[in-house]
Amino acid sequence: MIKILAACGAGVNSSHQIKDAIENQLGERGYDVHCDAVMVKDITEEMVSKYDIFTPIAKTDLGFTLPIPVVEAGPILYRIPAMSEPVFTELERVIKENHLA
Q: CA angle at residue 74 from 43 to 1, to 5 degrees?
């Protein structure tokens, strides 16, 4: 299973939309994915170490170097295929490149 951490400012709406979209789209592409949604302010180095990929809504400075790949997922929220498809394609590339599947 590929573990993905989605994050937004409140951890309530946008990150959950990103979570659902990633799980649905990557699931349809044959990947076993679990995504958690959290508030950016709650992220710690220990938390991140439990995930394979980090998908923030936008570029985020957490105050420490991330040991996992980052794929900005904000365009998913527009629900326009031309904008969201590159995010899913990048996630697939990261999965394959890092031998996560």
A: 60
Tokens of 43: 């992220």
User: CATH no. for residue 67?
Assistant: 3.40.50.2300
pTM over 0.70: yes
Contact 38, 19 (CB under 8 A): no
Domain total in the chain: 1
Assign 12 to helix, strand or coil: coil
pLDDT (tens digit, 9 = 90+) per residue, 19-49?
A: 999 999 999 999 999 999 999 999 999 999 9
Q: Which domain holds residue 84?
A: 2-97
